[in-house]
Design brief:
- The structure is a single chain.
- The chain is α+β, with helices and mostly antiparallel strands and about 375 residues long.
- About 30% of the residues lie in helices and about 25% in strands.
- The chain has helices at about 25-40, 80-90, 95-110, 130-135, 135-155, 215-220, 240-245, 250-260, 300-305, 310-315, 335-340, and strands at about 50, 60-65, 70-75, 120-130, 155-160, 175-185, 200-205, 235, 240, 265-270, 285-290, 320-330, 345-355, 360, 365-370.
- A seven-stranded mixed beta sheet has the order 10-12-7-13-11-14-15. Strands 1-2-3-6-4-5 form a six-stranded mixed beta sheet. The chain has a two-stranded antiparallel sheet with strand order 8-9.
- Helix 3 (about 95-110) packs parallel to helix 5 (about 135-155).
- The longest helix is centred in the middle third of the chain and has 18 residues, at about 135-155.
- The chain is globular.
- Residues about 1-10 have low confidence and may be disordered.
Length: about 375
């Protein structure tokens, strides 16, 4: 197995995520520092008669024990995908904000469900560079309609939100989108923070629709290498820009269907930033052995080719066709795939866990990621 220690460019022509302006080696230490400071505040819950689920610290959502059930919560920012939508509107005249709305909700909901929560309420944060952004009625209405449709798909209530005009902070003509989500873990046995994860468990991967909403800084930087920019055709009738704007898959229908089918995941991982390294998120010492790799979506294959990234670089940053991982008892693996497919989402039994060194082995591609390749705690 190849074992490079870092994710730097593999050749002079390689375009890395760091070159696109995102360096997790700088961001992750802040996350760790913030987590340590936040952990010291958990004791405040005792004054209200509640306690935190300590194992949720460092997971994708925070969980509080309120007695008869758990409450989970998360806040997530969309990132720079709006910039692609804005550029494509200038090029095509089309409005893409209904899909952008789904992307934003997916960032929060897909994190919340990793701990076993049923999404309950979503709140919106739409910060524009000026009031004029909201004056474009077609674009604004598209955002509203897409937001509601995503809420309907996830069966969550849209509780409210904030729409500040932040001239001088947000660039004129742009908008910064974020969502928070609160959910219930009820019954409490649905809690999924990895305490049941063990050797022999199967790894089921759910298909992505494309880039989702992570890696857009790299995708936008890549445009500089394309003579036709976002209008470059990557498949018959499909432009690079259109492919990038495919909405992120909402995975909560699958996790809810699994519960109704009597399947209890031992752990889940939302494959976003850090790519497949997110499979190493759980702090336990396991070897994650992958024997089946899902097909790579055309836009991600195109990005890897034109950014001249080797497989290791690509899989360390992008979802490469797998947007969500579910770790289940081996006996439930095949049924988990069936449940996902019944929800309209392709899935694969991709591998299994073994006792031993903490590492991810993607055997068909001869890739190895170790514990040192993901430091989020």
């Amino acid at each position: 197995m190849s074992t490079p220690a870092s994710h730097t460019s593999s050749s002079p022509d390689t375009l890395s995520y760091e070159q696109a302006g995102v360096n997790y080696d700088l961001i992750d230490p802040l996350k760790i520092s913030a987590q340590r400071a936040a952990a010291a505040t958990g004791a405040h819950l005792a004054a209200h008669g509640f306690t935190e689920v300590l194992a949720s610290r460092g997971e994708s959502a925070y969980v509080v024990d309120v007695g008869p059930f758990y409450i989970a919560s998360i806040v997530e920012c969309l990132g720079t995908k709006t910039l692609v939508a804005d550029e494509m509107r200038q090029l095509t005249g089309k409005n893409y904000y209904d899909g952008i709305a789904q992307d934003t909700i997916a960032m929060a909901v897909n994190d919340l469900i990793t701990v076993g929560a049923t999404p309950l309420v979503v709140q919106a944060y739409w910060a524009a560079g000026g009031s004029d952004w909201f004056g474009d009625k077609g674009r604004a209405q598209s955002l509203v309609e897409g937001w509601k449709r995503a809420c309907d798909t996830c069966q969550v209530a849209w509780g409210g939100g904030e729409t500040p005009a932040l001239a001088g902070i947000v660039e004129s003509g742009r908008i910064d989108l974020a969502a928070s989500c609160t959910g219930l873990i009820n019954p409490k046995e649905r809690l999924s923070v990895g305490d049941k994860l063990g050797a022999g468990d199967a790894i089921v991967l759910l298909a992505s629709s494309g880039i989702h909403a992570n890696g857009l800084s790299l995708a936008r930087k890549l445009v500089e290498r394309l003579p036709q920019g976002y209008l470059t055709e990557i498949a018959p009738g499909l432009s690079y820009g259109e492919a990038l704007l495919a909405p992120t898959v909402l995975y909560s229908p699958v996790t809810e269907a699994l519960y109704k089918a009597g399947i209890q995941p031992h752990y889940c991982a939302n494959i976003t930033g850090h790519g497949w390294r997110k499979l190493l998120r759980h702090p336990g010492q396991f070897t994650y052995r992958i024997h089946t790799v899902p097909p790579v979506t055309p836009v991600l294959k195109f990005m890897q080719e034109h950014a001249k990234q080797d497989d290791r670089e690509a899989y360390s940053t992008l979802n490469m066709g797998a947007g969500f991982a579910i770790f289940v008892p081996a006996a439930d693996a095949a049924r988990t795939v069936e449940v996902a497919k019944a929800c309209g989402i392709e899935a694969w039994v991709a591998g299994s866990l073994e006792a031993g060194e903490k590492q991810l082995l993607i055997e068909p591609l001869n890739i190895r990621f170790s514990d040192d390749d993901l430091q989020l705690r």
